[in-house]
Amino acid sequence: MKILFSIFILILSISVFSQPKPQHNLKFDSLAKRWDEAIPLGNGWLGALIWQKGDRLRLSLDRVDLWDDRPMPEIHKLKFKWVVEKVKLNQYDSVQKIGDEPYEKYPAPTKIPGAAFEFDLKKLGKVVSNELDIKNGLSVIKFDNGIIFNNYIHAVNQVGYFGIENIREEMIPELMIPNYNSGEPGSIGNSVAGQGLQKLGYKKGTVVKTKNSIRYHQPTWDNNYYEVLVQWFVLPGNRIIGQWTISNNKLAALPKPNFKLKEPTNWPTHEKWWNDYWNRSSVSIPDSILERQYYLEMYKFGCVARGNTPPISLQAIWTADNGNLPPWKGDFHHDLNTQLSYWPGYAGNHLDLTASYTNWLWKVRDENKRWTKQYFETGGLNVPGVTTISGKPMGGWIQYSMSPTTALWLAQHFYWQWKYSMNPKFFKEKAFPYIEDVTSFVISLPFLKMYQPENIISSSPEYFDNSIKAWFRDFTNYDLALVRHQLRTQIAVMVYGKDYGKGTYFMKVVLDSLGYYDINETGLTVAPGQNLDESHRHLSPYMAIHPLGLLNVEDAKEKDIIDKSLRWIEKKGTRSWCGYSFSWMGCMYARAKEGDNAADMLKKFATNFVSPNSFHLNGDQKGGQYSNFTYRPFTLEGNFAFAQGIHEMLVQSHKEFIEIFPAVPKDWHNISFKTLRTEGAFLISAKKENGVVTEMTIKSEAGGALFVKLPFPTWLVKGVNRNDIKIENGIANMHTVKEQIITFTNAFE
Predict the structure, then answer these.
(1) Cα first-last separation, the chain
(2) Rounded CA gap, 594 and 96, in Å?
(3) How much is the pLDDT for 112?
(4) Residue 502: other Cβ atoms inside 10 A
């Protein structure tokens, strides 16, 4: 087992192509004293947090699909038409009672934790080193008496491993079960702090011990259950090897390690997965804070995403271990959280992992269609803005949790999953049908038909929170941008599918009927008659800039709108922002080609809004330097939006052409990146040395037309006949074949 045998030789043998460096690792001289500062491990299915609770070393264990999926009471009573009428009559308290209050009142549905096991620190000694090697997901804790405690979760198999070297006395893990049935009433908290786990009303779980194992069986809601199994083996040479797993609605089982083998825990397959992951892409930037944070974000992305798992929820596989429900029930928030969580996977060249999002949305499509018919009383497809793991609605601030436009933002990910891969099978079987179903829903809504303006109620997350004022009687720029983008996407996929008939013409007619965004001296407004009057955490009014890319700085009129919008946001300030706001704003600045501002926003995120272990804590952890929010609920979307901010600074392709280094700070003279992915299924590598772009290599994974902005006035090219390249306005256009590699180099003339 590598975590016990020749571990340091192993680390040195990692492929030289692995991108993270030792300075990117998490390194401490003690154990974290809070669960949200712990060392994080994961493989998409299982997660662990390593920290100190009292005088014990604790491993908090989790599984992605541990859910209490009972229906949210009363939510089925809501009808969109009824909500519209109540808004018109100014009788919104009745809507809040059914739509908003149950989310705060009832403990479930919710994500739930697994268990934990602990070791006595008095036996282990004093910690002198606590390090996570992010290139392979290996945690190594060293003690002053020579004991070494190693942990990893296998990247492929649903097993976590631990090993202890140089033990001096018996080391037996003690299982700590969640307080579902503690005899205490449980805390009464809001959705941020979380209610006590006792509120779920579960029967007491059972624990069965043998001389080298512990099995925990926990009944949950409606005859569901999960099991945690921990095993350990005492080996010659004062060593212990242990393993653990969590199962959902089946008996937990672990393979017995074959200690006759050199690698009894299948480390080579684990190492191979992480090597492949890091070899997919890399970046090198001169800002050490941003580069380290970037690699920590991409490490976490590798921990939480797999193509066959449920998607990334608020905390994914790192559910709170504090006796309460996780912040916001650990659910699936689709008014930005799940969307932002997958942003870096596309450009980062991890389409096998972003597939978990579209696969799950496809899996729950029938349930979402059922809800669409029930709530909106129409056909097509929409998705609740806050859902359980099975796609059922959870309510809470229904302007957003039951918004008419949620699925339109989600459909963008189907478009991206296809556009970044150009996979014809995915296009035909999933992307086109999903996008078409969403469009069918949109054009069926009465408020979209301009002859019924009296039925319009529109919102902009989360402006005016959940008050009746959050409903606007005209299109918000948030909803309008999403509808415009959806119709443009529908036209694009119809054209790609060679449908040039009446359907395409009709979509263009509907698109033209929508009108333009509401703009004034502040740039994009929230809605007609409503400017952004105060600092606001959700950048919803500016969706047309990013991520939808409907407004671009290459167009003079659109650039003016973007400039005015950004300056107005700056004027309103960041006092009411959360951490993710800074990450998202970094992306938006990059789209505006304001590299210095983009880097500044991302640095504020990395220095003020993350825990020592890099977790996004939403609030300003330096006492309110940039934001009045100083709380610390952990969610992941801010982390992953940060990583995408770096990608946006290095390469963009949303404008139908590829551009490298579009938004890098003026003092970033030496930069490089390798095989970042763009729309059209192109893999791009580029270098900038001493402030000058020297080389750009493009691999055409799927073939087809390539449009790329040349970063130098004179150039040499390999891999394509120069005569086959057409240049217009600095954009090179050429035809490529599958797997073709083209390299442009600076001719320095």
Answers:
(1) 57
(2) 41
(3) 98
(4) 8
